Amino acid sequence: MGMAKPKNGSMGLEVIPVQKVFRNLCPRNCFSTCAILSHVENGKLVRVSGDPAHGFTRGNLCAKGYAYVERVYSPKRVLHPLRQFPRGSGNWCPITWEEALESIARKILELKGRYHSFLPVGFCKQGGNMGLLHDAANALFDGLGSITVTEGNSCWSAGLDAYLYSMGSIEKLDPEDMVNSKVIVLWGVNPAWTAVHQMHFIDRARMRGAQVVVIDPVFTSTAAQADLYLQPKAGSDGALALGMAKTIVENAWHDQEFLAQHVEGYEAFFAYLTSISYDWVEKETALPVEAIKEVAELYALNSPAAIWNGMGLQRHTNGGQNVRTILTLAALTGNLGKSGAGLYNPSLALWDLFSYYTRDCVTSRHPVGHRKININLLGVELKKTTDPPVKMLWLAQRDLFQDAHTGSLRSALEALELIVQVDQFLNQSSRYTDIFLPTTTQFEEWDVVPSYWHHWIGINEPAISPLGESKSDLQIAWDLSSKLNELSPGVCSFPTAGKEEEWVAKEFNQDINSSLGIEDYRELLQGPRKLKWPQVAWEAMKFKTPSEKFEISSLTAARDGLPLLPVYSKPASAPAAYPFRLMTPHSQSGNNSQFLNLPWLTWGTGEPCLRINPLTAKRLGLSNGDRVRVYNQQGEILLPVKLSATIGEDTLVCFQGWHGSGEHDLNDLVNGSPTDMGSKGSGRPAIAIHDTFVNLCPA
Amino acid sequence: MRQVGFLVDVSRCLGCRACEVACKNYFGLGETQRFRRVEEVEWQTENGIGLFYLSLACNHCESPECFRVCPNRTYRKRRDGIVVHDAGLCDGCCACVKACPYGAPQYDADTGKVDKCDLCVSRLDAGLRPVCEEACNNGALKVIFLDRIDETGLLKSVPTLPDIKITRPSIRFNPPVVRKQWLSKK
Q: How far is the C-alpha of A426 from the C-alpha of A398, rounded, in Å?
């Protein structure tokens, strides 16, 4: 697509550069997957704007999205392959792609010779770039045969399993349907900062009379917008949901017909509810019974009502079970399968419409079984993996210091013989990197990025040429395969060359084209399209569980060693030495390890700080700006405090993504306790990151 | 007298900072320039936690201090009340930076000059909305004609806004709202 601005120079002397507009997609791990219009003059990206043709993002970006021009042209961006020697020195020297790829290929082949296997080659990728063509890195390594890959997910695993036990799947609701809700319960989610486009649909529902409830241990920006806010103790969400369920059943507000037809095991759950008391619920949640009854009544008596359970609330040692209990509320009240109702959670259902041409490029021809290690405890796992050990690690747009147990990670990384990092910027992991390969941003490559939230599909076309010597992940994969096959013919079955756009074309198929009402993917260059996909999930009321019902009582869970019913599982509690819970939610200015290196998003906003309740601060004799040492048995960090009544007295908040100078990271304090669930859907439990306990003292 | 200004609905502002960065994106601002900025304001109320976000740019004051103190006469107040600055005449002395109570004029080390929000005059003159208003995801930011609006229910100041008596800023606020909260008992 090309829209030219009229040339209107005064006296015909001054020529306004012709501006071309291209279509891009934000590939970040985010709900909105925004459609971007990229304005290019003389081959340079001069600004971005939201694409008004996109019905969910509606022509707006978020603060991070508006910072893309700075991100593309940042002087910190790495534009040439680099080698760091010695490791950790910060002495980065440019090398050629030829040298870089040859070093990597020779190491891979040497390890194969030494161990008679590619298992010493490790590969770690997560949501650094969600585009389908970025799975090329996975497929490249499939082309070698069995290697060692990380398994699990630090994001959503426990909550995912709660859905799988209760309903067998996470069905895809249309988030635009939230406008039809009479009550919207935002449970542990802060869309004002992490999914800002959804606020428009929440607001429209409110204009039509809907009540918005926010349940969160932190009084967030979204909480400030809510009609009703509840502040339970972190990790007590299950007790709150049980208190609500008890109220609903005692008042006969439940939907008996729905339960009888579509729900398995509700009688046993009712019996369990009689065994809990409101005193107990009050004690667990630190909320008065009036609050619990108020939210129960609001949810049960104002159908259709929707619940959106956030990512944070499942990052507890009882997080999966808590989510399971919350989901049960929808089954009790029949808030499923109708417009305005439902349970909102990210879903990969739309992704599965694509051909996965890139991801399955090798495995569609011959399956490959990799050795899998837990991504969430990578240091520990690398150390205990022997026979053969992992000797090389490929980091695909990852920062490992966003994970837990950073102490063991450091020593495990030091022990590796080669660490390769593919990214646009150095990050905390780069201290251990030997070879850094610069990769393109979405503005410099073809791609298609499905959304795990909305129903819109667009296309990502190159708006500018790759900066410096950067290459797309796909190009890097072709080139490394080519180098490997040059040195050892036939060693890697991944293709050695190709055309990016053709790979995009192959991600589309007849089904998805007809669902988008297009003949050819190139029609999406005229604007994104909405999939013809049911607006309402679970409409048929056929759940993908063994009983084909919503399973309050889950034999599958019991078989996996979990409680049969959504009974309460006690949350982690603060040990005497570390009386404060440290929570690390997202700020509006960063997305995990990304964006916080950009001055446009950080300059003038002050140093990252530790939020502390004013009463706690008073007790400890602390004032705004005082520096404190925050510590536990894993580590310590130094931060200034900011007094804020938005959190309880036993809670501290520091937004994630903070890195101190030198060797100290916020996640040094995270011990890596696993969540109760996670293995069913993503192979491994996640990290109970919000069950991090610390103490503090003046620095 | 015609006076264009901003109406900021602090009960709707999400503190998402899209307005702030959209401005930098549109004008290609330097690393250290924030023509618009969003601050978090928290205060205690009888009904619970008071929390709002204050998005501020140049307030196009009725009595602009920048205009008064600039030795090079780089500031001009248009007939519609918008205060514009001619960076071409600016020698970077920063008298205006020191004088403005709201931090609107900002020095850019790269150009050695000061600049500030001009309320997107070229867009307004072309019938478009300012970039920040357009980027607002929750309808919290609007351009208004102060000489024409009914100010009933609007505030001239909110907590943390510097004293408005000196310059009489052309900004109005919808009041912050505190709704029902059940806070943790401990």
A: 10
